[in-house]
UniProtKB/TrEMBL annotation:
<dbReference type="GO" id="GO:0009061">
    <property type="term" value="P:anaerobic respiration"/>
</dbReference>
<dbReference type="InterPro" id="IPR036188">
    <property type="entry name" value="FAD/NAD-bd_sf"/>
</dbReference>
<keyword id="KW-0285">Flavoprotein</keyword>
<keyword id="KW-0249">Electron transport</keyword>
<dbReference type="GO" id="GO:0050660">
    <property type="term" value="F:flavin adenine dinucleotide binding"/>
</dbReference>
<dbReference type="GO" id="GO:0008177">
    <property type="term" value="F:succinate dehydrogenase (quinone) activity"/>
</dbReference>
<keyword id="KW-0472">Membrane</keyword>
<dbReference type="GO" id="GO:0033765">
    <property type="term" value="F:steroid dehydrogenase activity, acting on the CH-CH group of donors"/>
</dbReference>
<dbReference type="InterPro" id="IPR037099">
    <property type="entry name" value="Fum_R/Succ_DH_flav-like_C_sf"/>
</dbReference>
<dbReference type="InterPro" id="IPR003953">
    <property type="entry name" value="FAD-dep_OxRdtase_2_FAD-bd"/>
</dbReference>
<dbReference type="InterPro" id="IPR011280">
    <property type="entry name" value="Succ_DH/Fum_Rdt_flav_su"/>
</dbReference>
<keyword id="KW-0560">Oxidoreductase</keyword>
<protein>
    <recommendedName>
        <fullName>succinate dehydrogenase</fullName>
        <ecNumber>1.3.5.1</ecNumber>
    </recommendedName>
</protein>
<dbReference type="GO" id="GO:0005886">
    <property type="term" value="C:plasma membrane"/>
</dbReference>
<keyword id="KW-0274">FAD</keyword>
<dbReference type="InterPro" id="IPR015939">
    <property type="entry name" value="Fum_Rdtase/Succ_DH_flav-like_C"/>
</dbReference>
<dbReference type="InterPro" id="IPR030664">
    <property type="entry name" value="SdhA/FrdA/AprA"/>
</dbReference>
């Protein structure tokens, strides 16, 4: 494989390659080898060592609860008023596991193949093998701590299929899997809080990372109720703060979801990998008003029984039920007969966008396609469909006023999951020693596109089975040391810089609120760095993002002050970070001169499908900042032996 091409138009620099520290053995043996080699900390020493965990979703709560149970002193932080409000609750459809309990041909190797292929060969193979291996015990663990999985009549756990696979490996709790898993994890976390091994800090937001002696040793936080800024230090820091899809403004993420924790770590030296690899979920509700604050996610599980179609005639004004069968185009079934409506999300979203732009969109704004359950209801009955998706149908009715039992749902691609995140090696450590990253905040499992139901799996695996082994290995080298003094110069300097950023925002007395800039940023990104990208569109988007950032710091207004609850200030801090992150997203998309998964460059395609360039871009791009503030692209070379590279096809 040749080295990736040089910079585009001299917009950034190129640095040296990254080492993922994968054991020198076949990928199938890497995780066992690493487990055998991990150093341990004796129970007597664990109580003397402290770990900071930021985030209380499945990865964060799992890591905090497990490290607490092992005997470490854990300081856990959440910006929510309760740990269980973390955004993991929003993943509805299910969680994958390669347990092969259905006799349908599933195997551990098939799981690896589906995930590597689904990510278009841009994920680290050894990590995916580890994900598959640990998936086998995740379900039993989550079942044991209280997740009420659906069951067959005889008591066996039920499964269903998700996009990108032809087997049934997705375990679920109706249409609220993430919520039930989060409740179980939060309960386990509360047990450790009650035992005094985890100290919980709610309504507290991380503003910066404290780096001293070349390693992460603490964080700067702000109490969202009082505005107090303080420093907390520990032997190691774990970030499990989720993804950054809300940078697009219209996204399926909760309004509080943000990228500040990971972005502040990036500014302190942590490489940010694959920022342009963003998944657009094909079953989001369409935007119905310019003033809408976000989009709503309808679970991918609906595509098990729902059929996606558009009218054959562009602009057909008839209601969906009045359009006869021979005047409908079930375009996914037509183009991808092997997978049909269960094609991967990037394929389904790209095809929906093509239909809408070709004039076949439906709904008042002609910006959606139909997801129809008529045939499924006729086949298995309304009661069965209700048992599988009843809460989702109710949610759709509440959001739109339309009954999906009677008329088709209307869906459209919406910004959703981010495959990019802080770069981590095989030990889940970032380029800053002592800074570990888990869940969607990291980059390592999903490549250029995530298969549905792998997000809950990767978060659970990170939180319960990998971070609790990797973090102690690092701590073993620090036995006998004490955490950094919160009054150390590095800690005080980080706190002072966080204070300066807040003061600068409050000093701006412009004319527009932070959300005004966020909305404009989303418009730029959807147009230039959305489902499809072009070189010129990305160059234009880069100039627009940079101009908007300058305008933000000149014309934003933040009402109130910082000594109390101030959600306008919180929003301003996040939008300031989004504007910097957006520039890197566009640069990464401009730099990667190929199409792979969710990154679809219109210049690189074959018969409408993504065309990879494995000779030059079989890499993960990880970005850092030079001392002069310029972006520097570093690369991690990828290789595949378990799943040899091939042209990705779902036909």
């Amino acid at each position: 494989m040749s080295a990736p091409p040089g910079p585009v138009d001299g917009l950034y620099d190129v640095g040296d390659d990254l080492d993922a520290h994968v054991p020198d053995c076949p990928p199938e043996q890497a995780w066992q080898r690493r487990r055998d080699d991990y150093r341990l900390v004796s129970p007597a020493n664990r109580r003397k060592m402290s770990v900071i965990v930021v985030g209380t979703g499945l990865a964060g709560s799992g890591a905090a609860a497990t490290l607490g149970r092992l005997g470490y002193r854990v300081e856990c932080f959440s910006l929510h008023d309760s740990p269980r409000r973390a955004h993991s609750v929003a993943a509805q459809g299910g969680i994958n596991a390669a347990r092969a309990r259905q006799v349908d041909g599933d195997t551990l190797r098939r799981f690896v193949k589906d995930t590597i292929k689904g990510g278009d060969y841009r994920a680290r193979e050894a990590d995916v093998v580890r994900l598959a291996e640990e998936s086998v015990r995740v379900i039993d663990h989550m079942d044991a701590i209280g997740a009420p999985f659906a069951r067959e009549y005889g008591g066996r756990l039920a499964t269903r299929s998700f996009g990108g696979v032809q087997v049934s490996r997705t375990y679920y709790t109706r249409g609220e899997t993430g919520q039930q898993l989060e409740i179980a994890c939060a309960q386990a976390l509360q047990e450790q809080i009650a035992a005094g091994r985890v100290h919980m800090h709610t309504r507290t937001e991380m503003l910066d990372l404290v780096v001293a002696d070349g390693r992460a040793q603490g964080i700067v936080v702000r109490d969202l109720l009082t505005g107090e800024i303080s420093v907390h230090t520990a032997h190691a820091v774990v970030l499990a703060t989720g993804g950054y899809g809300s940078v697009y403004h219209y996204s399926t993420l909760a309004m509080a979801s943000n990228a500040s924790a990971t972005w502040r770590a990036h500014r302190r030296g942590a490489a940010f990998a694959s920022p342009s690899l963003v998944q657009f979920h094909p079953t989001a509700l369409p935007v119905s008003s310019h003033w809408q604050s976000k989009t709503t996610l309808m679970s991918e599980s609906l595509r098990n029984d729902g059929r996606i179609w558009v009218p054959l005639t562009p602009g057909d004004p008839r209601p969906a039920n009045d359009i006869p069968e021979d005047e409908r185009d079930y375009y996914l079934e037509r183009k991808y007969p092997a997978f049909g409506n269960l094609t991967p999300r990037d394929v389904a979203s790209r095809n929906a966008r093509e239909q809408i732009e070709a004039g076949h969109g439906v709904g008042p704004l002609k910006n959606s396609v139909y997801l129809d359950f008529r045939d499924a209801i006729a086949r298995v009955g309304r009661e069965v469909i209700a048992s599988r998706y009843g809460n989702l149908f109710t949610m759709y009715l509440d959001a739109t006023g339309e009954d999906p039992y009677e008329v088709p749902m209307r869906i459209a691609p919406g910004a959703h999951f981010t495959m990019g995140g802080l770069w981590v090696d095989f030990n889940h450590m970032s380029t800053i020693p002592g800074l570990f990253v888990g869940g969607e905040a990291s980059n390592n499992y999903h490549g250029a596109n995530r298969l549905g139901a792998n997000s809950l799996l990767s978060a659970c695996v990170d939180g319960w089975f990998t971070l609790p082994l990797a973090v102690p290995d690092f701590l073993a080298g620090l036995v006998g040391t004490v955490p950094l003094d919160p009054g150390a110069p590095e800690a005080l300097a980080a706190a002072a810089q966080a204070r300066e950023r807040i003061d600068a925002l409050l000093a701006c007395r412009g004319t527009h609120r932070p959300v005004w800039f966020h909305r404009r940023l989303g418009e730029i990104l959807y147009a230039g760095c959305g489902v499809s990208r072009t070189r010129q569109g990305l160059i234009d988007a880069l100039a627009q993002v940079r101009a908007l950032r300058e305008e933000f710091w000149r014309d934003v207004t933040v009402m109130g002050h910082d000594r109390r609850l101030n959600q306008e200030l919180e929003k301003a801090l996040r939008v300031a970070d989004f504007l910097e992150l957006a520039e890197l997203m566009v640069l990464d998309a401009l730099d990667r001169r190929e199409s792979a998964g969710a990154h679809f460059r219109e210049e690189y395609q074959a018969s409408g499908e993504a065309r990879r360039d494995d000779e030059h871009w079989c890499t993960v791009s990880a970005w850092q900042m030079s001392d002069g503030g310029r972006h520097v692209r570093r690369s991690e070379r990828l290789a595949f032996s378990v799943v040899p590279m091939q042209v990705r096809s779902y036909q």
